[in-house]
């Protein structure tokens, strides 16, 4: 059964107003939060073998720090189509995945809408529908392959945010 790890990029900086949105980097909190989420994935045994990544600087930096926490760097495909993508564009990109466990990192509002609609039953977690920065949901696909992925059919097996994980330590 394919598994999806769906992550919103970590907190980005707004220090340089001259930068285009796609070029905004992570701020210090975002850098720390991304490492936290990578360590959480490793601790839980959610180890991706493929990454689908938006082409923005903040998603690339998020992945860089997540892989520090994971201790590995999976096969990565950077997709311009995931930059500020709608939920339907995210699903279209996901249908082309080839890994058994795929980490997809993108942006709100599309990623939050995708998570809510992809789940058969959204978790009762208070942040799931808001999908804050670096929020991460883990889904087990109710299909044999990515091409058959559909909205409303997939089990959320875990969800976490860096704020709650860092509060536990």
From TrEMBL:
<dbReference type="InterPro" id="IPR029033">
    <property type="entry name" value="His_PPase_superfam"/>
</dbReference>
<protein>
    <submittedName>
        <fullName>Phosphohistidine phosphatase</fullName>
    </submittedName>
</protein>
<dbReference type="Pfam" id="PF00300">
    <property type="entry name" value="His_Phos_1"/>
</dbReference>
<dbReference type="InterPro" id="IPR013078">
    <property type="entry name" value="His_Pase_superF_clade-1"/>
</dbReference>
<feature type="binding site">
    <location>
        <position position="58"/>
    </location>
    <ligand>
        <name>substrate</name>
    </ligand>
</feature>
